[in-house]
Amino acid sequence: MGNKFLIKSGDIFFRFRNFLFPVFVISLILFVKPAFFLGNEILDKFAVTLGIIIALVGQIIRFSVIGLAYIKRGGKEGRVYADDLVTSGIYSHVRNPMYIGNFLILLGIGIIYGSIWIYLFVIPFFSFVYFSIIVTEENYLKNHFGEKYIEYTRQVSRFIPNLHGIKKTFTQFKFDFKKALRKDYGTIFGVIVGCYATWLWKKFKLYGFGENKGEIYSIVLAFILIIIFYSWVRHLKKSGKLISPS
Asked: Who has greater pLDDT, 31 or 78?
């Protein structure tokens, strides 16, 4: 597959990357029927647990990246853009930790859902989406930063983390919890809701809720607590209480 095709595809997907996660979850619920993992109810319980763990690991990776050294690559006018080349923090161990985190979140939710269509079509599709965006960003960085970026790519892998010195990385930088929470609370909320809603929809479609009022009350309570968490963090952000002192 040629780089030109990947770059053109990446340009398109980059513009809509913030909508990928909600579209993914909503599409699952609307168009794909959930299923037991490999058709086995017992295996499915392990698969759901594994899916939740994978999704949370993805979120932890995102949170760690932002709290240490974060690349502001939000784009400019719908296109890839970066002010600086960040090679410290988690980026000194792997070049695309944020996309690795994002993919693990999607993979985890896909495993929770259990449908064979997720494994055959959805996961491969998102693999292509993220890979094309990465190639597009790499092309921009190579043109923008030149030999500095090329040398960085020689030393640090695109996807496979080099954990040598990871302890030093976490001790060398002061982890900015407030900054990480301020910048990523929306994604944290989305991951929690995504995992919970996916599991809930699957449970409803495969088992139903019947007249178990206690279960229904616990579900409503969980959603209320999730919304309270989101509202509280959003309030802290708006009030400036998540701004770390210089």
From this structure: 31
Quick: pLDDT tens for 226-245. Answer: 899 889 988 888 888 887 76
**Concatenated DSSP letters of the chain:** --HHHHHHHHHHHHHTGGGHHHHHHHHHHHH-----GGG-HHHHHHHHHHHHHHHHHHHHHHHHHHHH-------BTTB---SS---SGGGGT-S-HHHHHHHHHHHHHHHHH--HHIIIIIHHHHHHHHHHHHHHHHHHHHHHHTHHHHHHHHHS-SSS---TTHHHHHHHS---HHHHHHHHHHHHHHHHHHHHHHHHHHHHHHT--TT-HHHHHHHHHHHHHHHHHHHHHHHHHHTTTTPPP-
Whose structure tokens read 């991951």?
191
Alpha-carbon torsion angle 145, 93, 186, 228, nearest 10: -150
Residue 210: band (very low, low, confident or very high) from pLDDT cuts 50, 70, 90: low
Residue 20's CB: how many other CB atoms inside 10 A?
Answer: 16
Name the nearest CA neighbour of 183 among 94, 87, 73: 73
147-192 residue pLDDT tens: 999 999 999 999 998 988 888 888 877 888 888 888 898 899 989 9
C-alpha to C-alpha distance for 112 and 110, rounded to whole angstroms = 5
